[in-house]
Structures are given as C-alpha cells and as structure tokens.
Design brief:
By secondary structure, this protein is mainly α. It is 93% helix and 0% strand. The relative contact order is 0.05.
Length: 229
C-alpha cells in the first residue's frame, strides 16, 4: 500500500473511532430516541391495523349479504320448480351461480384481511412487550448513569478536598513554624539582655545559695521555733 493510501486508511480509522466515541458519549440519548422512533412506528402500525380490521368487518358483512341472497334465490328457484316454471327456475339458478362466484371471491378477500389482522396483532403485541422491556431498561440505565455521575462527583470532590486539606495543613505548619521562630528570637533576645544585667548575676548567686535568699514558709517556721527555744 502506498503512503497516500495508508494516510487515507488512517484518516478513515480516525473518523470511525471519532464516530464511535460520539455514539458512546450519547448512547443513552440515542437509545431513548430509538425507543421513541419505535413507539411512533408502533402507533402508525396500530392505525394500519385498525384499517385492516375495518376492511375485515366490511368483508364479513358482504359475505353475510351474499349468503342471504343465495338462500333467498334458492327459495325462489324451488318455488318456480313447484309451479312447473323450469325456465324461470333456470334463470334463478344462473343468478345463484353468479352469487356463488361472488361469494368465493369475497371469502378469499375476507380470509386475506383476517390473516393479515391476526399477524399484525401478534406483531403489535410483541412490539409492545419489547418496548415495555426497553422502557424499563432505559429507566435502569438512566438511574445507573446518575449514580455513576454522583459517585464520580463525590470521588472528585473527595480528591480535591484531600488536596485542599493537604495544602491547608502545610500552610498551618508554616504559620506555626514562623510563630515559633518569632518566640525563639524573642526568648533569645531576653536571655541576651539578662546576661548583661545584674539580674543574671543574682540568679547565679541564688542558685549557689549565696547572697540574699528569699524566705519560704519552712525557713520562717524554723526561725519562729528557734525564737521560742
């Protein structure tokens, strides 16, 4: 295959993949539209079935009329024979023969309508059952799709929240570290000031038990006991 041919094939493949992606992205919408289209066709089929059933009823009435007419003319023929008028009886017999041909044709027409109506009724019922099942499936698909979208949203929000919480924790740690650094610097400044004053020396003497000692309750009590003794 030439390079140009391969490029054309690649483009066709890309177009096919893009088309499939569009179909997949709109699968639920397409399925719902296909159901609506099928419902519209079913509605039209029911109208057509109604027309065929009306024709069947008309054919049945015509059959009944011809049969009544045949029975009626058979009575006429018998009456003519009883009166000895064979010529008239033959004329009536010819009429009966014509009616019987008409009856046969009308019966074939009725049978055709009846057969078609029965077949269409079965198709309509089958289609109605199938559409009802598809409607249930569509409801389930939509519900599943909604649940999946909600789950995805929750997952995304949770992931984003974790990221935001992590950022907040890092910010807090930086603030605390900055405040601790400020406290450490302040303490170091105070310690440095104390080392250059008398307070530092007095503290050192007091720790060594030298110089003025602050009285505490025990020393006061011992002093009072000594005075009493």
């Amino acid at each position: 295959m030439s390079i140009f041919g391969k490029i054309i094939t690649a483009l066709r493949g890309g177009a096919s993949e893009a088309g499939e992606a569009i179909v997949d992205a709109n699968a639920t919408r397409i399925f719902a539209q296909e159901i609506r289209d099928a419902e519209n066709h079913l509605t039209k089929a029911k109208r057509d079935l109604t027309g065929i059933m009306a024709k069947q009823m008309q054919a049945q009435r015509e059959l009944d009329r011809i049969k009544r007419s045949i029975t009626e003319h058979e009575g006429y023929a018998v009456s003519a024979l009883n009166k000895g008028d064979e010529s008239l009886a033959m004329e009536v017999a010819e009429k009966i023969s014509t009616l019987e041909v008409e009856l046969s044709e009308q019966q074939a027409s009725f049978d055709s309508y009846e057969k078609g109506a029965i077949r269409l009724k079965e198709l309509v019922k089958g289609t109605e059952r199938q559409l009802a099942d598809y409607q249930r499936q569509l409801s389930m698909v939509k519900t599943t799709e909604s649940v999946q979208k909600a789950t995805a949203a929750i997952t995304d929000n949770f992931s984003n929240s974790n990221s935001k919480l992590l950022n907040a924790k890092q910010s807090l740690e930086r603030i605390k570290a900055k405040q601790q650094d400020f406290d450490d610097r302040l303490q170091a400044s105070e310690d440095l000031a104390d080392e250059g004053s008398d307070k530092s020396l007095k503290d050192k003497l007091a720790q060594a038990g030298i110089g003025e000692q602050q009285a505490n309750a025990s020393s006061v009590l011992e002093r009072l006991k000594a005075k009493q003794g």
